[in-house]
Amino acid sequence: MEDRQQYFESLLSSQPIIAEAIQYDEHLTHLTVSSDKGLVLAERLEAMASEVAKSRAEFIRQQIGGSVAEELFETWREKWGVPLFQEKLVDVSDFRNGFMWRFRDHTTSWSENQQAQEWFLTSLEARTVTCYELWSCDEGPDQCMEELTGSYRQILEELLAADIYEVLISPVFTTAELSTFIEEFDKDEHDFTLEEIIEDYISRNPNFVAE
C-alpha cells in the first residue's frame, strides 16, 4: 500500500504534459473536448521535443479521427500523468477527442476510490470533464447512482452544494472563494464542523491562506 501511495503522490506532484502547451493561452485552461481546441493543442504538443508530447498529440488526432486508440492510451497514460488505477477506475472510455470527458466516482467498495477522487479534484487533466457519475455496488451489480453534467467548475459547485466538502481541495476554488465559504459557513446547516472541513479539505487547497 505504501508503494501505491508513493506512486500516486509522484504522479500528482508532476506537471502533466498538456500543461506546457496550455500555459500560453489562458482560455485553453478551460478546455472542452471539442475537436477544434483539441487540434490546436495537438499542434503545440507536436512542436515539442519530447516523445511524451508527441504521443499525446497522436492520441488526440486518433480519437478526433474516430479511433478509440486504446493501445496508445495504455502505453503512454502514466507518462501523460493519468494514473493506472486498480479496477479500471479511469480508462480510455473516459476520453473523447483526446481529453477526459467523464469521471466515474466510486464508493469505498473500490479499493482506490479515494486516490482516484483526489486525482480528479487536483489534476489539470480532469478540468475537461463535463460528466460526473457516482458508481456503487452496495445493492448488487455495479450501477450509476448519480449523474451530473456541465463544466468541470459547475460540477464541483453542484457537489459542494450537496455538502461534498472534498471538492474544496480543488485549486479551481480561489483564495477569495475559500474565505467566503469560511465566513458564511453556518454550523447549524452542516453535519461537520468548520474546523473539521478546514483541516480535512480546505487546508489542502494550494490557494488556502490561513489567518
From TrEMBL:
This is Uncharacterized protein. It comes from the Bacteria. The lineage of its organism: Bacteria, Pseudomonadati, Bacteroidota, Cytophagia, Cytophagales.
